Amino acid sequence: MSATQDDDELDQRATDKLRWNGWGYEDTEFAISQSGDVYLTGQRYSSAGELPSFRGWVETDLGIDLRVVAPSGPFPSHLPEPTKNEPWVKEAEGNYGKISFDPAERLQHSHGHTAQEIFRLRYGWKPEYRIVDAVVYPREHGDVEKLVALCVKHNVVVIPYGGGTSVTYGLSPPDGERRMIISMDMSLMNKVKWVNKKNMTACIEAGLRGILLAEKLEEYGVTMGHEPDSAEFSTFGGWIATRASGMKKNRYGNIEDLLVNAKLVTPIGVIHKEAPVPRVSCGPDINQIILGSEGTLGVITEGIVKIRPLPEHRIFGAIVFPRFEDGVKFMREVAYHRAQPASLRLVDNEQFRFSQALKPKSTAYFQSIADLLKKKYITQWHGFDVNQMAAATLVFEGTKEEVSSQQKIVYAIAKRYNGVKADAKNGKRGYELTFMIAYLRDFAFQVGMISESFETSVPWSNTYALCQRVKERVRAASRLLKVPGEPFTSCRVTQAYDVGSCVYFYIALQFQGLDDPVHVFSEIEHAARDEIFKAGGSISHHHGVGKHRISFVKQAIGETGISTLQTLKNGIDPKNIFANGNLIDPTSK
Ligand SMILES: Cc1cc2nc3c(=O)[nH]c(=O)nc-3n(C[C@H](O)[C@H](O)[C@H](O)COP(=O)(O)OP(=O)(O)OC[C@H]3O[C@@H](n4cnc5c(N)ncnc54)[C@H](O)[C@@H]3O)c2cc1C
């Protein structure tokens, strides 16, 4: 996440102060009030205010006392001096956009948002850690071309930087890189260049953040419909570089379905397709080389995407199921009938209880009564056990007729699996909470817990079993590594495809008393990924590989797959200028 000094060119949200040691804006955090309850500070989010049930959940479900036991350390006092390639600096400075050597800016551009990276910032920064040497802010495609050419000429490393929300160590400079490293921050390339309502396409610059992109397109009465949970900060270029997926992929598609053309500035020239046409038969699709390239081949500067008219109607929905297994069967049948609404997510019982704990204080007396009655209706009338039930949240979008027919089909399928329609407010709140999750991750640090999310894709036949096996493996690995208490493990099925699903896990464990929490946590995450593979899942559905999952690439695409990627990389970037070390292990043959 970046903030630059060019306030006049950026929306205020792109310049508001961000936290150096965690997620999001400085004015927003979860905190403990004098009465001992948890509340969310600031006014940005609808959940701001007291969360009266949260404390009880922490104490019973996590088994810990709610108090700050691990406040963050101060901003690192010793950051390494930048390595300067003087000929590069001389030619670049003052010519192709702003260049900064500011230590705080360099640190901010040297990490993403894995739990391990944030832990290191908060509790264990060491002066010898490598950070980028400079941050450059190109203003247009031409600046990027010139800067990349200059880096090739002087053998300077480039790491493209979008919104900084990577969860794969995608932005961290590789240890041992002795050349000067520049982070190329795309935030000043933030325009919607044009919108063509005849062809339903738009041309967008790479550095535009998701939320602002949506707002700008809305002014034209259109939407791209791509809404990853990180959309507040992640950028259009970052989405392409990581093969991102948004919550409304059922209606609009994932980024690979939305992208018509993209421009990639590489060390050997610019890769792009000439015409923004719907389909081309010309060998393997060049877009597919750009999508998921994770900053290893070049810098994406802009792209043309498909757009749709703004939906006439948007309706939220919620369904509760007696057990998670029933919900998974429901999801599979919805996919079989290709009846998915714009978004459909199923949370397991642990996450259901967690989301209930995040309900804001109900100020209206009648509201609390109504909530109580609804709970009674589900538990007593339908006989659901609150410690077993699961919930689906839904977003329907389209014309009035489309929405009404989608609702009919989906709720009829839900009934077959004993699903009961619940208060739509729960559905809406479920989606709003997605913006809160990373703030909660930081709050968890303070109370002594390290937590993370990770995802996979898996065939329907293995979906339920994979969920159970991974949670059990995390618990077993925690016991083996002598983690205090029981870890929190939870999952949700977030996407329903023809052939399978995307499953998204949260894990959290107590780190107080562990000698090397980052090592232990990484071992447990590794065990979870190993179990994912054993249970028929993939290396990643949308987070990508970065350096975090690099040891699993061979299992995912085989040795020939790796050498194909390596050959491509060597051909496009023979001097390894884009040396962030993502995707391909430099030591692999
Ligand atoms: C709280 C949270 C929620 C998330 N939710 C989702 C989600 O719902 N769906 C999803 O898909 N992901 C999600 N992610 C992961 C992350 O947001 C995505 O990977 C996102 O696409 C990264 O975009 P970014 O602009 O932040 O890129 P960055 O984090 O800045 O960079 C990511 C990688 O892409 C490269 N890169 C960035 N911009 C460019 C460019 N212009 N040209 C070439 N390479 C570039 C970088 O070098 C790096 O390797 C989430 C992450 C967090 C922390």
UniProtKB/TrEMBL annotation:
Q: What is its cofactor?
A: FAD
Give start and end of each FAD-binding PCMH-type domain: 128-310
Q: At which positions is substrate bound?
A: R441
Share an example GO biological-process annotation for this protein: ether lipid biosynthetic process
Q: Mind telling me which PROSITE patterns this protein's record contains?
A: FAD_PCMH (PS51387)
Q: What is its EC number?
A: 2.5.1.26
**Residues carrying the site annotation Important for enzyme activity:** R345
Would you tell me the protein name for this molecule? Alkylglycerone-phosphate synthase
Catalysed reactions, as listed in the record: a long chain fatty alcohol + a 1-acylglycerone 3-phosphate = a 1-O-alkylglycerone 3-phosphate + a long-chain fatty acid + H(+)
**SUPFAM superfamilies referenced in this protein's UniProt entry, alphabetically:** FAD-binding/transporter-associated domain-like, FAD-linked oxidases, C-terminal domain
Keywords associated with the record: FAD, Flavoprotein, Lipid biosynthesis, Lipid metabolism, Peroxisome, Transferase
Where does the record place it? Peroxisome
Recorded hits in InterPro entries, A to Z, give:
Alkyl-DHAP_Synthase, FAD-bd_oxidored_4_C, FAD-bd_PCMH, FAD-bd_PCMH-like_sf, FAD-bd_PCMH_sub1, FAD-bd_PCMH_sub2, FAD-linked_Oxase-like_C, Oxid_FAD_bind_N
Recorded source organism is Arcella intermedia
Annotated catalytic residues? Y504 (proton donor/acceptor)
Q: Name one GO cellular component term.
A: peroxisome
